[in-house]
Amino acid sequence: MPDEEIAEEGVLTPLDTPVQDPLLREILAENQLTDTPQEQAQPTSSKQEEVDCVVIGLGAGGAPLLARLAQAGLKVVALEAGPWHDPTKDFATDEKAQSFLFWNDERLAAGGTPLAMGRNNSGTGVGGSTLHYTAYTPRPLPDDLTLQTDFGQGEDWPLTYDELAPYYEEVEQFLGVSGPTPYPWGPARAKGYALPPLPLNSAAQLMVRGADKLGIRTSPAANAALSAPYFQEGVGWRQACTNRGFCQAGCSNGAKSSMDVTYIPIAVKYGADIRPNSFVTEIERNAQGLVTAVVYTQNGQQHRQACRHLFLCGGAVETPRLLLLNNLGLTSGQVGRNLMAHTGIQVWGTFADEVRPTKGIPGGLISQDTHRPKDADFVGGYLLQSIGVMPVTFASQAARGRKLWGQAMRDYMRKFNHVAGINILGDCLPHADNFMELSDELDARQLPKPRIHFTAQDNEVRMTAHAEKTMRAIWEAAGATDIWSFDRYAHVIGTARMGRSGDDAVVDRDGRAFDVPNLYISDNSTFPSALSVNPALTIMALSLRTADKFLERERRRDA
Ligand SMILES: Cc1cc2nc3c(=O)[nH]c(=O)nc-3n(C[C@H](O)[C@H](O)[C@H](O)COP(=O)(O)OP(=O)(O)OC[C@H]3O[C@@H](n4cnc5c(N)ncnc54)[C@H](O)[C@@H]3O)c2cc1C
Ligand code: SF4
Prior knowledge:
By secondary structure, this protein is α/β, with parallel strands linked by helices. It has helices at about 20-30, 35-40, 65-70, 85-90, 145-150, 160-175, 200-215, 265-270, 315-325, 390-400, 405-415, 460-480, 535-559; strands at about 50-55, 75-80, 110, 220, 230, 235-240, 275, 280-285, 290-300, 300-310, 340-345, 345-350, 365, 380-385, 420-425, 435-440, 450-455, 480-485, 490-495, 520. The strands form 5 sheets. Strands 1, 2, 7, 8, 9, 10 and 20 form a 7-stranded mixed β-sheet that branches. The chain has a 6-stranded antiparallel β-sheet with strand order 4-13-14-15-12-18, with helices on both faces. A 3-stranded mixed β-sheet has the order 3-17-16, covered by helices on one side. It is globular, with a radius of gyration of 22 Å. Iron/sulfur cluster binds near residues 225, 245 and 256.
């Protein structure tokens, strides 16, 4: 599946549709309310005792650094708002039943191009959004980090590709990323991918057919699902992908390298105290402005956890929300601002051949030939990826994109097994109109709901038009009929950006807040620019780097 299909309309929390099948209803009822073995087994250290580090949020930004800090022998507590699932029991081949994987609290969407929330943007649970991500893990190309230098627009990163490269390699090897060696785009690499590429699903094969005719190079994508059994240091053997195709519903055999089956077991092994279902609301400080403790609610009970350092990894909506709620790290005036969302238009076509879009690894094929197109009338660039899709997701997109309903929708969905899609993932420039703020409306916890303002600007519109033309041409060359496009934006990015100075950035290149020395941020929010690639690999790489820089600083202080 491409990155992120949009199942829900606009701003509202999706309706909780009752499950129709009585047997499935019974199974779900049995499974839903019991704690997972992980939840029952966790030792909980005294909640009064001061610990070295508290980590808030266990997604791509939180889990790698949690493991690193625990491995360094620090006393670490992780507070995660969502549950700790048992993949073998909780993840099913049923996209509606799996909607609990998404962050479904209401968020308000505003602006000219309001962003769909819910499953379009973020997850919850031990593993965060990686529980449902498609696991595309391309590296950015070096000039993704230098938009301002190259185009005079957008932002440069305060880090170079070469500084990040060793971390990309470490994450790829640790997760067991499957992909082509050598990789066709970008600089030569010291090491190839850990495993050979995964097999291409039908949409990917059709995309190859069309792209070949147009001279557009394609390649099996880098994907953090295992193409063969893989021995992971500190974790043990993990099973290969069975091509079930429901990666966005959670991977039940652990072949997809989500954080719960990779970095979290390491963290646990080294003594991290993981507290699921723990929603942080307050961050306390002393007279010097240093963080001293966090307050959170777990199973209806409020707790306080004292800490010497705080790592905030709540994702690009909840991280700035917590900062704004607690009046923390706001000196630069940039918290909530510089909000970006990847351009993500999809183009669908119908084929005479049977496609069966639910089958096979959904994150299969990539082309980065469109990274800097010669005829571009926009800043930055985009990549092309093939799509695998689940039926309810596809139907909801057809309803939104084609305005189909009733009989017309039923007729179109009869062709579901013959549809195939391509999407892009492209840059987005920060703009003053795009930001996140606290609204006046309160949620069930009596906290202000976040309001996310997003309006696609000229650059995004021009890039989207270029991409739509390219993808339509690929589908025409591949023999598709009834081609249509679905314009969309996904991934909230950049709301607590990193930079060289506290005048215009919230954190420095090591993820450390400029104005609160014992506060670190590690998630999608610190990206200064959106990058023209899927974000998770970079979030994980930055997470490890942030931990290393923190540990170096601590060692220097102790020396
Ligand atoms: C459907 C879908 C498919 C995707 N596919 C891909 C892909 O193929 N490749 C890719 O690179 N990216 C993909 N992405 C994007 C990617 O998953 C995210 O960008 C990335 O995982 C975000 O990581 P994060 O650590 O910033 O935030 P998250 O993973 O969202 O983690 C934040 C965590 O913090 C917790 N939290 C938040 N607030 C609090 C609080 N107050 N107290 C305690 N805990 C809190 C949340 O519960 C959550 O677990 C996809 C996204 C979606 C929606
Ligand atoms: S396709 Fe592979 S990685 Fe995805 S859910 Fe199935 S087994 Fe897991």
